[in-house]
């Protein structure tokens, strides 16, 4: 796809004016970094960073049977989500394979508004999720609407982010819990303010109309000047989520894995009423995982300097015992780190003799529990 065919966010000119290095991400022209990705990473860990996430896929589901449709289409129990709250869940194929991991927001502040939900899909899967929800909506009194063009999405992340945002909003940020969202204004602009970050830090996501994106970005930039806020690209977002042990679709999650294979069987709610897509296959997957534990997602910390990449074999005793799913230098730990699926016999933290085959050389790695990094609250 040529750069002229890529979709551009409402902040495209702003990124270019800031000198961003742009990249094709899921058909969008997105900022990879503005300067040093390591400095952007450290800013989010110690101060604050500002992200454009407008490539994410917003899908609105409304109607009297919106909750019933989502309970059928997704593996989670969406009917129990309270107004103003959000839930992490997945959409699976009939064979149990993961199509995408999602965040579902129940919009509206009263039970009467219970029929209004927003599903946020990963950019690379937004069309797949939209098509699946549309197909699965047959027979339900509910409407599935593609709202990708209705929103720009900005995120401010890091320990200074509550103070920065508080100076610009009338919303009660102190009362906004993790995995919640509420309507408010930011710099005088109507916004849905959410707290469902993907960096391991506290922070907020701001869903606004695209025509308001630039003024909100500029207001946050100005409000964050004294707190050390910097614009951040997708490159540091990846190292931040890796340190926080958060799975990325296409790396830790794929259609060849069920939620039980990914160690995320807890998101599948068999106790909810009625059939849901993948129920039979996921029941089998749960039983299989109980009797023959699948490979386990673990953390690996390098003893040397070589960086493991996705797809590299994990080895022990001359045998391949797993595969790296994500790897990068960790600015916080000062060493290369990776997430990998490994055989259960080698998954315990501190397991001896584990290495990664990096172009034929077996580099030693320490097996650790995820996450690599946990913020002090």
Summary of the model, kept short:
The chain is α+β, with helices and mostly antiparallel strands.
Write up this protein.
The chain is an alpha+beta fold and 377 residues long. It has eight helices and 20 strands. The strands form four sheets. The chain has a six-stranded mixed sheet with strand order 11-12-13-10-4-14, sandwiched between helices. The protein has a six-stranded antiparallel barrel with strand order 15-18-17-16-19-20. The chain has a five-stranded antiparallel sheet with strand order 6-7-8-5-9, with helices on one face. The longest helix has 13 residues. It is globular and about 60 Å long. The model has no long low-confidence stretch (mean pLDDT 96).
Keywords:
alpha+beta; 20% helix; 6-stranded mixed sheet; 8 helices; 6-stranded antiparallel beta barrel; 377 residues; 32% strand; single chain
Task: Draw up the topology in text.
Elements: E1 7-8, H1 12-17, E2 21-25, E3 28-33, H2 37-46, E4 48-52, E5 57-62, H3 66-73, E6 86-92, E7 98-106, E8 116-121, H4 126-136, E9 143-146, E10 152-157, H5 161-166, E11 181-186, E12 189-194, E13 203-208, H6 213-223, E14 229-231, H7 234-243, H8 279-291, E15 296-302, E16 313-316, E17 319-330, E18 335-342, E19 354-358, E20 361-368
Parallel strand pairs: 1-3, 4-14
Antiparallel strand pairs: 2-3, 4-10, 5-8, 5-9, 6-7, 7-8, 10-13, 11-12, 12-13, 15-18, 15-20, 16-17, 16-19, 17-18, 19-20
Helix pairs in contact: 2-7
